[in-house]
Specification:
- The protein has about 400 residues and is of the alpha/beta class.
- About 25% of the residues lie in helices and about 25% in strands.
- The chain is built from ten helices and 20 strands.
- A seven-stranded mixed sheet has the order 16-15-14-17-18-20-19, sandwiched between helices. Strands 2-6-5-4-1-3 form a six-stranded mixed sheet.
- The chain is globular, with a radius of gyration of 23 Å.
- Bound molecules: S-adenosyl-L-homocysteine.
- S-adenosyl-L-homocysteine binds next to helix 6.
- S-adenosyl-L-homocysteine (SAH) binds near residues 209, 229, 256 and 281.
């Protein structure tokens, strides 16, 4: 096995279980590793620090097991078993809820791997060359460890574009039992959603907003709800169940508008409280001409900052968007405002939202501070795993 020796004093992060080895920390490499190979990492003095997946780029090794020179044979099945047990022990998998994240990368000590489960199908997404090369074994292990799952779909064309030299990155079935219906429905808190992993964003659905959607349901009774950046309409369907007077869903993508309509019809056939608009969010907020303003607005935009260099512009974007919402919302209204940009931290996001409130001259109080749910755990040794932030604000 290839051995990677770190420079003097560069072992500290690994000793604290942080799973990334940056290229700048490497003194020399003994061997000629290929991308995705399992390699061993050692301190400058030769002490074993861990074993992980090698990759070219700024993060050179993603550690799978610490303080060892070899991976235990059943390491993968153990990790997947533990992840599944944890979700079960958290009461996440019930007859009413078969939509959940099974593996959340570093948060489940499997850096580079995301797995979401939709009823009997798992959708696997690789973010590293190593996980890409292990995909078939991962799929087989999931089916072995998770009794409900008998299909595994691979969806990594959009997450591995930087690995163009791998000619075998194609989305498709890794395991397919063949008895699936063409329309695929998954249940979240008793509501049904059509999951389209073939064409959908991420693994087909944004599993991470489950708990926050339930909070929208709680506050929706009798309210006029505006769900901006609705995608599959998760928040809209919950708001309808919560007794909203009306729900307007907005997204700039045609496909999203079809999905939200399909999901609303499935859960609330003949519903006349919902309307969907295929529009740009910023333009929509500028041109609201409703006589009675919305009194619950959800802003869940895509990540405005995908990397550190984009943070400044992203903060401007959050400020502009939230300003528009604060300018429109009724007195006594509730604003749910989210950011899923990992590079924008909680404090920066708050500052952007609070500045927007001040600019709009509104009196605002914090009701809730939201984050990612329990099936998207954050390893305390890998704070970078925290990405979803939300504020629920009462606006006078
Ligand atoms: N709230 C959703 C997830 C949002 S994902 C949920 O709970 O599932 C972000 C969505 O924003 C995508 O569907 C994308 O099509 C949409 N989008 C991106 N830019 C937009 C814009 N300028 N105006 C309106 N929608 C936009």
């Amino acid at each position: 096995m290839t051995r990677i020796y770190l420079k003097k004093h560069k072992e500290e992060a690994l000793l604290r279980f942080h799973p990334w080895v940056f290229s700048g920390a490497i003194a020399h490499i003994e061997g000629n590793p290929e991308e995705g190979d399992i390699v061993s990492v050692l301190s400058s003095e030769g002490a074993p620090l861990g074993v992980g997946h090698y990759q070219e780029g700024s993060i050179c090794v993603r550690i799978l097991e610490f303080r060892t020179e070899t991976l235990t044979d059943n390491f993968l099945s153990q990790r997947i078993h533990t992840a599944y047990q944890m979700r079960q022990s958290l009461q996440l998998i019930t007859p009413n809820n078969n939509t959940y994240r099974l593996i959340h990368g570093e948060g489940d000590f499997l850096p580079g791997l995301i797995v979401d489960v939709y009823a009997d199908t798992a959708v696997l997404q690789a973010h590293s060359a190593g996980m890409h090369r292990m995909r078939q074994l991962i799929a087989e292990t999931i089916v072995e460890q998770v009794p409900e799952v008998n299909n595994v779909y691979y969806k990594s064309e959009s997450t591995l574009p930087f690995k163009r030299h791998f000619t075998d990155i194609q989305d498709g079935w890794l395991i397919h039992s063949g008895n699936q219906e063409s329309e695929y429905w998954s249940k979240e808190n008793g509501l049904e959603f059509s999951i389209d992993w073939l064409r959908g964003q991420k693994t087909g659905f944004f599993v991470d907003q489950r708990e926050n959607r339930a909070l929208v349901e709680h506050y929706s009774n009798g309210r006029r709800v505006l769900n901006m950046f609705c995608y599959t309409g998760g928040f809209s369907v919950y708001a309808l169940r919560g007794g909203a007077q009306l729900v307007h869903s907005v997204d700039s993508s045609d496909k999203a508008i079809q999905l939200v309509q399909c999901n609303v019809n499935r859960n609330f056939p003949d519903c006349n409280r919902h309307e969907a608009f295929c529009r740009d969010a910023f333009a929509f907020l500028d041109n609201i001409n409703a006589k009675t303003p919305y009194d619950l607005i959800i802003l869940d935009p895509p990540a405005f900052a995908k990397h550190r260099e984009a943070v400044k512009n992203a903060l401007q974007g959050y400020k502009r968007l939230n300003y528009k919402a604060f300018s429109q919302i009724a007195s006594g209204g509730i604003l749910f405002s989210f950011s899923c940009s990992q590079a924008v931290d909680k404090d920066m996001f708050r500052l952007a939202v609070f500045s927007a409130a001040a600019m709009a001259g509104r009196k605002v109080r914090i009701l809730h501070q939201l984050h990612q749910p329990q099936d998207h755990p954050i390893s305390i040794y890998h704070p970078e795993g925290e990405y979803l932030k939300g504020l629920v604000l009462y606006v006078e």
